[in-house]
Amino acid sequence: MRFLHTADWHIGKTLNGFSLLNDQRELFKQIERVAKAERVDAIVIAGDLYDSSIPNETAVRVLNGMLKQLNLVDKFPVLAISGNHDSAPRLSTGADWFSFQNFFLQTSLEGAFNPVVLEDTQFFLLPFFGIQTVRNYFNDPKIKNVDLAMQRIVAEMEKSFVPDKKHVLIAHFFAAGSKRTADSETLIEVGGLSPVSTKTLAPFDYVALGHLHNKNALHDERIKYSGSPMKFSVSEAKQEKGMWLVDTDPFQVKWIPLKPVHDIHLLKGSFAELAKDAAQQPTDDFYDIELTDQGRIPDVLNRLRAYYPKIVALHRTAFAQMTRNQANTKRAQAAPLDLLTDFYSETTGNQLSPTQLKVAKSTLSEIEGSK
Amino acid sequence: MRFLHTADWHIGKTLNGFSLLNDQRELFKQIERVAKAERVDAIVIAGDLYDSSIPNETAVRVLNGMLKQLNLVDKFPVLAISGNHDSAPRLSTGADWFSFQNFFLQTSLEGAFNPVVLEDTQFFLLPFFGIQTVRNYFNDPKIKNVDLAMQRIVAEMEKSFVPDKKHVLIAHFFAAGSKRTADSETLIEVGGLSPVSTKTLAPFDYVALGHLHNKNALHDERIKYSGSPMKFSVSEAKQEKGMWLVDTDPFQVKWIPLKPVHDIHLLKGSFAELAKDAAQQPTDDFYDIELTDQGRIPDVLNRLRAYYPKIVALHRTAFAQMTRNQANTKRAQAAPLDLLTDFYSETTGNQLSPTQLKVAKSTLSEIEGSK
């Protein structure tokens, strides 16, 4: 059995207002190409198919088209679960019909105990769950955290283990020892922060996880996050994105990197340096910029966007520090006319015209005189 | 070929804040029972499956369960289209998988020209459409109204007619000569008010329409609205609800009434009469009440709800008329203390206490004295 392990597609996500749908479509094509080239027997998607519990109509159309392509056109068996970003009832619409075509979409805890058998492997599809759901299912109020919940779930799954089969768990949670780094991994469920111990997951030959977007969040030979197929936030800028190609017999896991369509770059420099370097940088990529200039730069974001149209964050640490240290002192000493001209140029990006300057001077003298 | 023609299920609809889901579940069971008893070969649902383009999760779960029951459990072929209340992209999620199990759900104009053939019949599934979609499809800006659009659509469908088959159209629009009565048939599309001529529909052996909720909206032997399975507004209170049982050969149409779970009643009478009759009326039904009393009745709606908990509308024609005719005259002549005590009892439902009355009297004398 050879399968692809991917997760966290977050179809419909935007990055600081920029739609990522075209990038998501391109990355989907890469995933599809790999699946074909590697002749996989199945594709596993470990939750967070959508970015939102109420995805917009375009996102619905796009994800539906992708799943149709993989399953109905390319004829790959697909195994998917709902993540914390998905609405289980919305995502599961039609799931009962999907399974006739080897598309197994599990959104309920009940269904997790009924494994999908493909070739030599039993797949257990466990959607994202709240602890209360597990308490209700086992009628046991003593289940106090996610790891205890998971111990009960795994014990229940083991009852269905067929000994001469491999056992793969597909799940969406926070595993102990893994590092959360990205702000796009927002947890909806209160209490969802408590981790599942990797020991609890020992009975499985492989655990295909979703939730954390970084494949390096956890280092374990058989328990892995695939991470998201693309960078969804500045905090993910330095991560390599991709998916796992898993063989069950003999067991082997191989990392398949995916090529970003529009990368996220972290740049640091003065306005002049950044303006000079812009010609060497891809125009359509996303930029997180740290400006090293200490002085005020009027209308700085719009002026930088002339060079880097898709700036998603701008930091001015040096300027902020200078401002904190000196601004109050400076302002107290400055002449009213200087304060006014500075303020004007800072907010509008222009200098006062001769007429404006004349009116400003005479008005200020008048005010001074009337004191 | 024998099929049931129903439409306008509006799953998730509320009536003046009262959920109708339980009623909708019960009516679904009646529909299912009829389908089994009459051994139909298919079930046609002519649009407006949901009440909203973004149905809530419960509505999603309920409709999905109903369709699963009819199609996957009972094994009925199901033919359905999107109506003006449905979101076509949301409703169509999974439709490509449905068709493998003889559940044909059409939400796009393109798909309408590819008939579904079941036994002796070609079914053309035409979802609710905007004129611009038809203009784009035929690349013809001269299509100015819905009837012209429909003429083009029908001509295009006729190209696929197989002569020795029967031809049934499933559609969701306003047909000429039909009467719109109900306020629950809200039109979303501007321009959607222009009607389709019944002449345009002549090529079909039967036209199964959705949109208007009253089966009597149109009188035509072969072009019929099934109406909704239940009353969705006070304006539908006097309508008999049900669906059509259609045989194609020999052609025959039979009306199958559905029994309301909680009916809507129109009552007229004085407060005293209505209070007296309440014991004879079903407590859980919906009531539209016209009060004939001319005088003020403090806190009247809450007091009536003690007898009729589910009042969806209250009219006070006689009181309003009396008020219009006399109130101004009366008020101008009334003493300030009478106005105050009337106002107090009308708004609170109680009389002024002796202390309140004392304070009111002394305050009013003070005001009078200070004039």
UniProtKB/TrEMBL annotation, chains A, B:
Heterodimer of SbcC and SbcD. This is Nuclease SbcCD subunit D. Residues 1-214 form the Calcineurin-like phosphoesterase domain. SbcCD cleaves DNA hairpin structures. These structures can inhibit DNA replication and are intermediates in certain DNA recombination reactions. The complex acts as a 3'->5' double strand exonuclease that can open hairpins. It also has a 5' single-strand endonuclease activity. It comes from the Bacteria. One of its GO terms (biological process) is DNA replication. The lineage of its organism: Bacteria, Bacillati, Bacillota, Bacilli, Lactobacillales. PANTHER family: COMPONENT OF ATP-DEPENDENT DSDNA EXONUCLEASE, NUCLEASE SBCCD SUBUNIT D. GO terms for molecular function: 3'-5' exonuclease activity; endonuclease activity. Signal peptide: none annotated. It holds the Pfam family SbcD_C. The keyword Cell inner membrane does not apply. Belongs to the SbcD family.
